[in-house]
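hey team, just a heads up i'm posting the complex here instead of the shared drive bc the drive is being weird again. everything in one block, sequence lines first with there labels, then the predicted structure for the whole assembly after. its three chains so it's a bit long, scroll down
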Amino acid sequence: MLLIFLLLVATLVFAAFLVGKKRGAALYPARAPSGLQSLALTNVHSLPVYHGLFTASLALAPMLVALLIWSNFAPSIIRSAAMSAAPVISTSVEANRKVLEEQALYRDVQMSAGLLNQSKDLTKPELKSAAEAYNRTQLQLNGLLLALAAAGGLAGAYLGLKRIKPEFRSRNAFERVVKWVLIGCSAVAVLTTVGIVFSVLYETLNFSSRYPFDKFLTGTVWSPSSLTLGALPLFAGTLLITFIAILIAGPIGLFAAIYMSEYASRRFRNVAKPVLEVLAGIPTVVFGFFAALTVAPLFKGLGDSIDLTFGTNLGVASESALAAGLVMGVMIIPFVSSLSDDVITAVPQSLRDGSYAMGATKSETVKKVVLPAAFSGIVSAMMLAISRAVGETMIVVMAAGLAGNLTWNPLEAVTTITVQIKTLLVGDQEFDSPKTLSAFALGFMLFIFTLILNIIALRIVRKYREQYD
Amino acid sequence: MDMTMKPEFQALQAASAAASAPAAVTARGVNVYYGTKHAIKDLDVDIPEKAVTAFIGPSGCGKSTFLRCINRMNDTISICKVTGDIRLDGSDIYDKALDVVQLRARVGMVFQKPNPFPKSIFENVAYGARIHGLTQSKADLDQLVEESLRRASLWEEVKDRLDQTGTGLSGGQQQRLCIARAIAVSPEVILMDEPCSALDPIATAKIEELIDELRRNYTIIIVTHSMQQAARVSQKTAFFHLGTLVEEGPTNTIFTTPRDKRTQDYITGRFG
Amino acid sequence: MTDAVLNTPRRRHDLTSTAAQALVRKRYAAERRFKFFGVAAIVFAAAFIVFLVSDIVIKGAPAFVEHRLTMKLTATSQQVAAEGKTDRASLLQGDWMAVVRSGVAGYFPEVTQRAQRSKLYNELISSGADIDIRNRIIADPSLIGKPVEASVLLSDDADLYFKGSVTKRLERTGRGNGTVSGTTGDVQFASSGSDFVDDVSRIRSDLTRAANLARLEVMRLKAAVQTVASDRRASLEEQINRQVERLADLDRRGLATGGSEKIGDNTASVLLRLNGGVIKVTELGDKSISGTVLIPLKSNVDAKAGDWQIVTLNTPEGSRKLSDQQISWLDRMKDEGLVSRGFAWRFFTSGDSREPEQAGILGGLIGSALTMLVTLGLCLPIGVGAAIYLEEFAPKNRLTDIVEVNINNLAAVPSIVFGLLGLAMFLNTFDMPRSSPLVGGLVLALLVLPTIIIASRAALKAVPPSIREAALGLGASHQQAVFHHVLPLAMPGILTGAIIGMAHALGETAPLLMIGMVAFIVEVPKSLVESATVLPVQIYLWSDLPEAAFQAKTAGAIIVLLMFLFCMNGAAIWLRKKFEQRW
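-- predicted structure starts here --
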């Protein structure tokens, strides 16, 4: 169906283009085949190709509008037609069970309709009439779309062709169309943010109407199965793992950046930079696998072999915060190092020269002059790395725990915001239970927290750039 | 024209002709603002047809700014505002109904640094013809490219390598390619913004020779820092200072008997 | 004296004094230390990569190899074409596993008990073992009733045994002449040499080690008994008594000399191979053993020195998936020359499965390809369009400033939040098909859009303004200048950014979990709206499974994913190098 529609659109648009171009070319007065023509000789404003493009865009627009309107209404029309022909299901008392049952029934109808189309036997013969209604309505609506689109396209093309005259500025008109398309593209990025804020905020408000939000923020017990949703252990767990990660990535990333920008020879740089880029390119699910199946058992084994007293060893949980934090730390090293590298290189050479001229060594120059000068930039690099670590999901999903322990011991298992969002939302969900909705509340907290970090960090970076540019 | 005539005399003759020639471009009461900066103040000038007019003056005096007003290149700078009246062949170029693209086809421009497109030499020259729909067949286009390159005295040097990239030419050749590209659109006026400032003396001499050739068919306005160059190539000279047009007139008059003290100071090298 | 000192011109600080030199040395030492930290940081990062990659390669390499039996199978018409119909549809209904079972049974006539048969056919042979013979006969139904050479897929555990990851297997030849008491059931075996001395001492040292651990446990419990509340003391003391008893037993057995020792569930298994059969040793002394026959002996004649073998399976029977009996059967198959090893094409040609030996990544690969198609198709045009508008046409005002800040922030929003957007928006509001590549692609497109916009803007900005001016000066419109000249010149940079963005999207997992791409899906997806999974999600799903064989599959899938990413990043670097242009 979609294929037929696309074919129709392509044909009409292409035809409109060709006709428009031909009409445009016909505007030029006949002239001697070889003489060069001066612009002054004709009063034709735009090239034929622009007349074609403009006509084509006038033909395309109504067809897209038709598709948009159709896809807004068709599914619900088809559904109501099919469901009215479906056998009435047991009317549950609970409204929300009823919704679920209806959904299941509709899925069955859709499946039966598919089988009917392939003229196969129905697994559920009682749905035959509903499936037939489904197919019939769909066929009718599809036909309607095609007819609408064709009519709109032809009308658009006709309007376009009527406007083709020598003095008509079709290039300017077409360029206006292009400009609006480009503006639309830019709007997508803004709409994404708006979409995130609205969808997450909406469900969060939904959540807060079913569960006291202050209890959510300050509760110390996280147990979704018993609907006790105190998120403090998740915040603490997230912070613990992030803290371990930044403890690793901070110094290593910073030292790597200092070495690369101040000491390394060109050749060493050419080798070391790709190493860090490789680190940045490894998918987090791979880090997660490595953390869960190699690093965590390694730590557990190490802990088990360290005897404290009489056979009690240093117990390390098999999903320790340490293992997840360590691997996450390695993951964010490139974020710290590449940004720090940028800000360190941006420090003017004259500052360094001043320090060298006084007899300072390189490391003294770095410590006393370069780093203080680059301090705000480095801070923002760390903040961006922290925001990355807080929002990271796969490593903690695979290597951190599920139970909300409120602890600062890195050897124990903790859980994080992202782990719980994933756990709550994977599988069957009921969208009116505070349990499911709490995932959105957690997502909202995550979004707000990382957003604040990012805004501050990006603002610092901007200020920093202005300072030295 | 008698080729044995002395160049000085030639220039003199052309200048007197220019003075009486009808104006191709006329500007009345032009003011240009960059944000709050008043870059050109109340400028009136006439540019004679089929002659070379030189704009001279110290850096930042507004001569380039005014040049860019004539083909509305200033439109690309959002903070730039132009008021007043500039006419090309009697029609207002800031007319709302006028398509700036068509204006620029009539007023070509050659820039300070040679800026050929990183495409083949042929494509460089053909591009203007393509976007303005000047030719209908490949043969027309070939002919146009050859003619333009010949007029820019570049044909003999590049005819065997038209498919090679334009950026591979020497600086002087690149600038001549830019001139060829400009004349391919058959403009009425060619604006040249210090066209020789990035070139060595030999390449400069060639370009100057070319400008002298071109003035037979085109109205040329050249902005230059070199007073010798202005004296060599132009028939009319306008001296700008701090955004005002101080003095204009036939080149030999300006260089021999300037009316204004500032002009005299500038051409004798006291400032600038 | 003092006058002389005052009169000689001298510096305030004497740089040649020992104190000054010591200071300089100290400063240089600090310098070296500082430099060392820098190198160490980079070396750490590199070492981590090496460790990670080698770990994954070692874990993943077995996934690319599989073991199968190659044997003659005869499909009877009763088994596969009961009603005499040999068309494709009726043949598909046949009991092809029965064909395989009867083929295997030819080699194991003694396995008749129900429990035994299940251990052989269900646990050693894959449930997909019949695919090859089925396909062969469907292709040529005239082969029914005739022996056909076909390959029979082994189960994951059997495959792992042949890969050597179930247990370490040592085989040595008996040095003495052996006498055996029977061919089936419980038997006695005696050797004229001291063939089992090493085994006995190994078992005894294991016992001693266990005794030492028990001793520590007793000490720990005794320490604990002091601190524990009185009501729990009784049970703890009882526990201590049990441990003490166990300890005494372990000590006695571990320190004994001569006599015999039992082989328990937690000790390495010892098997004897003689006269074409296998005996599992249950108790052994220096020269003689008693045991149970696992595979019947052909006769009970004496075995000469060198004609019988002792097999040690290092992993105790209690801690491995395969019993001694099953391992004996597998050894038998190998001896018969049935087992062959080959490249596991199946890993690339089949979808997911509950059975590790049948699971492949094709579903994930196709799912990823479809998803990437949607992502690329959306985010490249939209991203480039947005970049062109913002860089070339947008007026510089507060609004565009906000858009810019917004895009930079969007690039740093956690990916799981995009998953929430997809769930709330595309699935719940727009009612799009769950787990489909369409929705996955949409979410990933939004995710990488900021990256592509930022990269494209940088590439557009790098094109010198003189090119734009040249075009404008010729009378090109602003859009013509951009689309004819600036965009083509920026294209390599844009594509580099796009490839890096796509590589990022290809490895992304979390947002796809949110939109339900975690379902177990066997079918390879054929359209954009079917339920599908993608490669990284497949990796995540497999990593959670308990079977050891899935661990290799997970690592194998990671290798494939990393290969793709490696190629994409390589292409990006190549593109950047090739079209790097300086103006």
